[in-house]
Amino acid sequence: WAYARLDYIDKPLCDAIAAVSMARLSEFAMQNLTNTAWAFAPLGFRNKPLMDAISAQSLPNSDEFIPQELANLAWSCAKIGLLDEHFMSAISAAAIGIISEYITQDLSNTVWACATLVFHHKPLLDAISSESISKL
C-alpha cells in the first residue's frame, strides 16, 4: 500500500464527501459506516465531526458488526489518531462477544489500534491473547 501524503489530499473534496456522508449516515448499513471511516483513514484525513457521527450511529447497533467491521473501525480511529474512549469501549465489548470469529488479521489490526491509541482494555486484550494462542 502506498499511502497518500497529506499535501496531496484534496481537503475540500474530502470535507464535501464527509458532509454528504454525515447527512446520510442514518441510511447506511453497518458496512457502509465502517467503509466510510476506513476510506479516509489511509489518507490521514481526520474529520472529527464525521467520526463522532459514525460513532453515534454505530453505538446503538454495535452488536450487529462482524469482526472485520469492528477491526476496521478500531484501525481507522488509530490511523488518524482519534481516541474516543466511549467508542473504543463499545468496539471492545462487541469484539469480545465474537472474538472466536476473528481471523488473525482482525486480531492484529485490533490490538495494533489499541497499542497505537494507548487504549488499555484488559478484557479485550485478554480475549485477543487467548484467541491468538488458540490460532497458533
From TrEMBL:
InterPro entries: FAST_kinase (IPR050870), RESC6_dom (IPR058917). It holds the Pfam family RESC6. Residues 25-131 form the RNA-editing substrate-binding complex 6 protein domain. GO terms for molecular function: RNA binding. It comes from the Eukaryota. One of its GO terms (cellular component) is ribonucleoprotein granule. GO terms for biological process: mitochondrial RNA processing; regulation of mitochondrial mRNA stability. Coiled coil: none annotated. This is RNA-editing substrate-binding complex 6 protein domain-containing protein.
